[in-house]
Known about the structure:
By secondary structure, the protein is mostly helical. Helices cover about 70% and strands about 5% of the residues.
Amino acid sequence: MKAKQKLCEAVDLLYSRGPTGSNGYARLLLECIRTNDFEQGKRLQSHMERHCFKPNDTFLQNRLLHLYAKCGKISSAQQLFVKMPQRDVFSWNAMLSLYSKLGLVENLRELFNRMPTRDSVSYNTVIAGFASCGCSEDALDFFLWMREEGFEPTEYTHVSILNACSQLLDLKLGKQIHGRLTASNLKMNVFVWNALIDMYAKCGEIDQARSLFNQMLDRNVVSWNSMIAGYLKSGQPGKCLDLFRQMQVLGVEPDLVTLSSVLGAYLQSGLVEEARRIFSEMNEKDRVCWTTMIVGYAQNGREEDALVLYSEMLSENVRPDSFTMSSVVSACAGLVSLDHGKVVHSQVILIGIEVDLRVSSALVDMYSKCGEITDAYDVFNRMATRNVVSWNAMIMGYAQNGMDKDALVLYDRMLKENLKPDNITFVGILSACSHASLIEDGQIYFNSISKLHGMKPTSDHYACMVNLLGRSGNVVEAVNLIKGMPDEPTSLIWSTLLSVCRINSDIKHAEIAARHLFELDPLDAGPYIMLSNMYAASGRWDDVASVRSLMKDRKIRKLAAYSWIEFNNKVHKFISDDRTHPQTEEIYRELSRLMVRLREEGFVPNTNLVLHDVGETEKVESICYHSEKLALAFGLIRKPRGAPIRIVKNIRVCSDCHLFMKFVSKVTDRHIVLRDSNRFHHFVGGQCSCKDYW
Ligand code: ZN
Ligand code: ZN
């Protein structure tokens, strides 16, 4: 501040006294450059022009140019540069440094090409300009040109070039530079070290990076960040966190970049709470941090937390981007929360990113998962461009919502538009075939995976085929398909077989499937329960007892079943026999009222499902209050007449509840959408879109 004041007084003095000599101006200009004082520089320029500017005083004009470039004042610099009667390489370099500083790469290129002579500063400036703007290929081109012309790069040029190598993942050139640096015995400063470490880490040579890091004496936070980010990128979050701890032990203060990486490391390793702790400790959070945390929640099944964090982000006035929005939309899809989903959709439109491929595909998926297939198609139809993810979202949406023909038609359209299907596309297509019992088509599509598209069918595809064959009553064929698989069948294959055996009441094959599952997933309660239900259905109570004692021996607990329904932006969750809801009395009254109506219509509760060997009345009692029935009753009480009722269940819906829903959709004339762990059920007028296969 003092220096600036002195400078101002000196210029004032000049104005009161009249012109001074070249040396006087030069000294004052140098002071302007040192203190970044653009204003005094302008005053000096007009003073000089009024009094003494000799037409060829290039030296003083260069000082002015240098000042304007340093202050980033483009019009003052350009005006001066244009009217200079003589320019030397310093004048040109000053302009180059201005364009480089402002990232005006096209001006930079044009000016460089017009230069009558160039020196090493010109090259270094241009390279730094291109590299810092991410134009890594241009930076490398100029670097090669520079070496052909015989100019020596400075250590800053090396930093720029190493950064360009990291961006282009050009390990070969990066290694060459490293070799030159070692051979030339140049003393490497901390920036060169950091750039080298970063280059190796980004190119996946994490051990090399680590060994350099160990040789490096004065590491700063950037060096640590390079290593931490490198480990994160190479999928070693544990090492990343180790380094973070070391860094803290050594007293190096982490910055925003460090914390973002560490946040990512915790979320890679599934340590959501740890990540949240780091997140809360961060004083300043940028969009990347918010988004990382939101994505982390969404991917770890913590959708509600993701939505809460998203609204916090908005209230902190951090603008979300397409990454944020697509994961927020996915969180809504995971919760089957159409209300939230619609709000988020309108925000997406407001921000103007509905056209973003990632966001629009997530929207298609969200509407499909909420059973709103028309809205899904609207979004899909409005998309200006579509990639395989968008097509997959729509095809899967149709398939999951029982619109199997539409899924297949869309697939044909996709092929006609020359898009290459991927594994997920075929899961959609094959499940559509299997819901629609299109055995032959299914076989053709399945064979086309390898024959037409040159891909290897995955176990998901095999599971679809087992499902398709089994549902059409060809359990033996399904078993043969499994036997012919090139790889070991996964638990998905066996559990698919088990469920088709249940549909076909094929206890013999069900036992085979269950035995494999008991080995592969010994702690998964599902297969034990399904097998014992099958035994119960055929009255084999001894076998039921032996499965139950096996479960007891292995300490396997049934996965607590629950259902939820959304009302007024609030999720209402129910478990079986739940009596905690504030409206419990009304709900149970509604259920018994329904039961009377349904019995009149011919509904008979399916008591075969009940595990225990108990009396008939007791059996009816225990299945009457399954969680989805409670959720349904709540929906019927609260949702306006005619409004569809959407229920989500965490496990597969039981056949009694399925039948119950069908009857309710008829007697109440309601559209009921039930999403269980397996698929969607749209109940309308006494029918279900799954055609009773699920
Ligand atoms: Zn049930
Ligand atoms: Zn159904």
